[in-house]
Write the structure tokens for this entry.
Amino acid sequence: MTQPIAASQIHGALPPTPLDLAVRAVKPAMWTVIAFSFFINILGLTGSIYMMQVYDRVLSSRSIQTLVLLTLIVAILYMVASALEAFRTQLLVRAGVKFDDSIKEHAFDAVQRASLRRPSPSHVQALRDVDTVRDFFAGPGLISCCDVPWVPIYIIFATLLHPVYGILAVLSCVISGVLAYANDRATRAILDRATKANISANNHAVTTFRNAEVLQAMGMVRQLRQRWGQHRGAALGWQGLAADRAAFLVSATKFNRVFMQSVILGVGAYLAIEREITPGMMIAASIVVGRCIQPIETAIGNWKGIVSARSAYRRVQELMRMTPAPAPRMRLPDPAGALSVENLVVHAPGRDVPVLRGVSFAVPPGTTLGVIGPSAAGKSSLARVLVGVWPPSAGAVRLDGSELSHWDPEQLGRSLGYLPQDVELFAGTIADNIARFGERDEAAIVEAAQMAGVHEMIQRLPQGYNTDIGEAGASLSGGQRQRVALARAIYAKPKLIVLDEPNASLDAAGEQALGAAVLALKKAGSTVILVTHKTNSLGLCDMILLLNEGTVHGFGPRDEVLAKVLGPRLVKPEGGGPARVAGRPEGATVEA
Ligand SMILES: Nc1ncnc2c1ncn2[C@@H]1O[C@H](COP(=O)(O)OP(=O)(O)OP(=O)(O)O)[C@@H](O)[C@H]1O
């Protein structure tokens, strides 16, 4: 069947990103704002016309009644203009909120995808960038941009007063326009650099304070403060340079306005002497030419905001293009836990050399597979690929026969449990952390905590399961964090559970609880992948995968592989207890 060709493909244009769609969503509001601006700018003539009437009609006729009537009309027109301006601002604020609503979740997801590809605190900038663009909607920069298309109203009015005024109005607009352009050329690149330097100073501070304890303990505060100061100094330097250049151009614009007003008065005086215009028209022209260049002047005055919003928009767009959302997936039947890996090749983010090469193995549902091997063998990398964190460069990881990328991410997430080597909990309560911040199934939360052997510990905390564990679980000990993270991984007994060094910070009781949890999961039919260095965990495993330098050096039933690796020194476990290696203390490491 022939696939329909999108118009964007025919013209070679890129498909719209969520940012394009968010902008499209606020376009009707923006057109309304521009239409409102037309009436606001028409009403902007009120002051000039009033002055003209006062000078030419009231003063000559000395009619107080006309003056009062005119003033009343002007008051009403000003009130209407103010109401329209307030309404326009409200429309813009709402457009900003709508823009934010349309983009925020996509921005969050894009940051998540970018962080998976290349972990860096800089990706979070995209969320701040969305704020910058949203705030721009309600700022003076955008309002001035909406007024610019209506400048011809003032030019026409000036021309009607006298053609010479029309020429002068056009001239002052051209001068202001040239100055605005010069301002952009002179400051845009510098402001961009200032923003980049600022972002990197902020990122530097964020990553530095993440290691605040190391900084303090080893007296590294001064050195890292200096490095942060360098980034910040660069940002301030660029900002200062841009401000210097902009200051000159802002002054030049102001000079243009003030001088033009005087020229208009001078020309007006001449024309009045020649009886070509009235004194009222002279004053009206001076006001109207001032109004003519006001939006341009406001735009130049707020140029920094305009440039930042534009750069923020571009950064978000770049991120969206770099990390397109995956196509929606069909819901498959819930998996039973059969895992197969075929000729897997994996590259770590930003690395040219693969960390896993030609890895193949398969385990049926309910198997406990131990993954062993020396440091840097690729065990954690394999764990990441098995849970879909890193994509395979070649080959496939299949759960119940379907490649991980074919599963709906939410469904897959519910079917997976993952305990990473570096445990990270999130700010919130213990219950929320165990329930993965989803809907709370209290029975399942307690069951997971009991299986992870952490229920009693949680009960002893001041608020039990509702205890707030602070940013990244900072109020828990390393072992407690690991056990809560284990409970999170086994919450609702997913069908595939990957535990990367789950016993790294556990005491004897913790290890015992881990053993019991793995056995219970096995009984429940879950497939458990246990990455470990410790021999005393191997007794829990049915099968072993031995990795070395990113390739498989052994795979099969536990005793077979261990016998091959360790030879006759393996002591078979009794009654399903932990495997022991003769001549090695319990918990010794297993290496190829
Ligand atoms: N995020 C990453 N970015 C770049 N390279 C990485 C990353 N994570 C791991 N690597 C590289 O991949 C290789 C395998 O690392 P991996 O963490 O998978 O080993 P491991 O067998 O789990 O080691 P250990 O037992 O010490 O945890 C190493 O050479 C490492 O430098």
Q: What stands out?
A: Confidence is low (pLDDT under 50) at residues 1-11, 570-592. The first helix runs from residue 7 to 10.
